[in-house]
Each structure stands twice: as C-alpha cells, then as structure tokens.
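Journal club prep — side note

Before the paper discussion, L.F. wants everyone to see what a predicted structure for a comparable chain looks like in token form. Sequence:
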Amino acid sequence: MNLKIPGFDIDSVIGEGAMATVYLAVQRSLERKVALKIMAPALAADASFCERFLREGKTLARLSHPHIVTVHDIGNAGEHYYMAMEYLPNGTLRERIAAGLSPEQGLAYVRQIASALGYAHAQGLIHRDVKPANILFRADGTAVLSDFGIAKSLDDRTQFTQAGFAVGTPNYMSPEQARGMDIDGRADLYSLGVVLYEILVGELPYLGTDALSTALAHLTQPLPELPLHHGRYQHLLQRLLAKEPGERFANAGELLAALDALPASDPNATVMRPLPVAPM
C-alpha cells in the first residue's frame, strides 16, 4: 500500500464512502490498532473544509463519553487529512438489525446513542450522519457513536456544497438537512428516529429509487404506521420524525424522558428478522 501517514503502519481498508476511506492501522508510538479515516481527495481540495475538519477534529478529540468513539489523533500529511480513532471490531448496528433485534435491545441501543448525542450537542457539535453503519460496539456490547468526520459546529453557519457530495446519508437525513438549511441537534434526533424505525420494522420508512427521490420522500411523505404489535412506539416516532424541527423533541434529554415513559413492553414480542437489504 503506497499511502503513507507518519507514525502509522496502514494494514487494510475496513470501510469506504464518498467522503473518506477508513483503514486498519497500527499507531507505532503506542503499538495499538486504530481506525484511520482519511478524507477523500476531492474534499481535501477545499481549503475551508480542511480547516473546519482539523478545527472540529480537535474538539472531537476532547470529547469523553462512554458511547462516543475515542479520537486519538488528527492532522494532515500533505494532501492526506486523517483522523485516528479507537478501533472497534465488534460489528455495527446495521449488521445487528440484519440479524434481528428484539425491540427491548434496540431501544437500549437507541438510549445509549441518544445519550451520546445529548453530550455532543452540549459541546456544540452536530453529528449529521447518524445511521446504523456509524454505530459500532465495544467488546462489552455497548453501542458507540462513530464517524464524526462531517460533524458541524453549532456556531458554524457555512455550508459545504461541493458538487457530487451530500453532507449526510439521504436514507437518514432530516428534511431541513436535505434542503441545505441551518440545522441543530434536532436533525440528529430525526436521523435516530429513522434508525429506531428500522430496528422495529426491519426496513426504512422512506426509500426512493435514488438519493433525490429518497430526500423528497423525507420532505413530503407521511410517516408509515407501525405494525399493531409495535403501536406503543408510534407516538415516539411521530415526535422524532416530524417534518418540522419545532414539532420534534427539543433535545436528547426530552427523548430520554420519553423513552422512560414508554408503556411496558409485550413479553411475548418476537424478534424482527428483516429481509436482506442492499448495502448503503
């Protein structure tokens, strides 16, 4: 592998996306495995984006929360902008949804990620890409929110609009985010609502034939009704997935309180085993 980042021995690719590639690497100084995320060259060509990436990465490195991935280092080696993060090899929520989750287990994960989002929002950061593929697991089974690479400071009103890149993932993107409007933490809660729906039903609430039609569905289509045996969660999802931010939970604390207030679950509930879905 020709890619060179000082201080790291890069082993192999463990994840790829439009905005970055993630490699398994060893940090030489501490002889530990890390997930080394390297920004796509097209993004690295935007000087203002690189500046924000480094600035916000330094903020992320100061975050300390049991359900947020630990950032070990951030910087650039020439045109290669990178973030070295805690290596979490125990799979993703996406894989666990595909295998089948009970509602109770899924709600436990949602609670953990809501707690992480509340903490990040209090530090002035919006994640902007909450989805099952970005929720990883430690060896003890706790859920960890990862991939803050496109996080946005709440006081940063600039927009990244380079052609060919959408900030976020259309399947999980809030209506205001899809419109390119200013966003706050309620956009992350919307995305977490999509994750909750997928946990319960085994499929996405809105799915178009392409990114544009999916975004339009989030903007215009009503929330599908949950199956009757999941009716206790309908009101929760209606708040999370409201089209207008003002109709959602105001913050993660309100969501956590609503989770506490849910009626008792059905002890005879079965695990949802969804049909296979195409990779996202």
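L.F.'s comment for the group: The longest strand covers residues 8-16. Keep this in mind when we get to the figures.
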